[in-house]
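Hi F.,

I've been meaning to write this up properly since the lab meeting, where we talked about keeping a consistent format for the predictions we share between groups. The idea is simple: the sequence comes first, exactly as it goes in, then the structure tokens exactly as they come out, then a line or two of notes. No screenshots and no reformatting. I'm using this chain as the first example so we have something concrete to point to.
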Amino acid sequence: MCLIALGISAETNMVKQMVATFTTLGGEPEVTEESGRYVRLTLGDSVRVELFKAGDEDTCKHYVLITACAPQCSSRVRVYNKEWEYLYPVEAPFQSIFPLATMDKETGQITWSDNDTWEY
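Output, unedited:
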């Protein structure tokens, strides 16, 4: 288990910065779900952030999935080390203008779908 905890109470600059930024912009950040390794934040009406910690103390990685809707939803996934230094992105395994990701709260597994279908 990683030593760095996730969530609003976490002493992590990244989480604090996200919450502060969205509060300053008029958003109402809220922890909507939290379990041992998983946290889901809602940052206003159109943005949600899911965080998952994987690995042990030495190999800890934080997976951060951000989904924004304006109005079409699109996701990005980034991986950080235990000090919250950016490591690399996780890309959808296909070409898409609006890739949409979901995260399994038990395993952290990312599932991608193509959100390019527009209905008129």
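Notes:
The radius of gyration is 14 Å.
The mean pLDDT is 82.

If this format works for you, I'll send the rest the same way.

G.
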